[in-house]
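ok so for the tutorial part 2 we go from a plain amino acid sequence to predicted structure tokens. step 1 is just haveing the sequence, like this:
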Amino acid sequence: MDRLKCMEVFVQVVRAGSLSAGAAACGMSAVTAARHVQVLEARLGQPLLRRNGRRQVPTALGQRYFAECAEVLARVENADALGDAGPAGASMPGAISRPVGQLRVSAPTTVGSHLLMPIFAEYLQSHPDVALDLALKDRAVDLEEEGIHAAFQAGGSPVPGLVAHTLRGVTRLACASPAYLARRGVPRQPVDLAGHDCLGFRYDDVLGRWVFTQAGASGGMVRDARLIAHNPLAQLQAAVHGMGIALLPEYLLAPEVQAGRLVRVLEADVQLSEPMHLVHLAGRFVSSKLDDFVRYMVAKLGPEACPAATSA
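step 2 — the prediction. this is what the tokens look like for a chain of 312 residues:
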């Protein structure tokens, strides 16, 4: 069977969620559509689809294969469209190089939904042929195993073997509710936190450190937290409800301070900026859509000029 036709059938089945609906979109019977998918599975040596109730859903390999097939088919359509450009094809410059297809991107929940979402909206508006599948996870992800094209990682160093682009760090600020401060007093310097209830944050089973810098000196401490949250939004609500002092990202804290629900403390001290990286797999072909996505994000969140990627 023609491999491109098999890919087209597979993509239609995944999009429709069933063999019968995907087959109808391709103008064939469900039995014939199943044979096309089986040809691909035989080539790969693994199943691409599994049944979930009445629906056919892609396996982990199927999700990754679907994204690649969708891009291949989109590029074929772009190539065919060159015939509409006239004899010289001059009216379609860059038709094939235009980013197309789906990108699976991972980010920490709060970073993705608050800091990155406005930038994602701008990106999609300027890239109508690209779709983002956004996985928000408050843990480290395995790009190879989970089929992630690119991942935003906050804090720490990238895993060795990944291509890492350095982005601007996320500054955290200390804050508490007016009611808590009226009840427990206002800390004037980091050492005063020993007498306060501190709200901890755990990411990927690692308890976050409270690190401050003042007058050119820096130091770190790990507080004994009465409440430890695995999500910054939960930590935010705990602080708003007077449960203690929290260290929160500046972009998340600003609206609550403006509304008077939280007050900054230790304003002479700054929580050291967490490094953030955009990473993808090394040692493999980088598609045009991934390369374009990385450059767009670095231009928005990193230095003015996109630096060369470095292997971690």
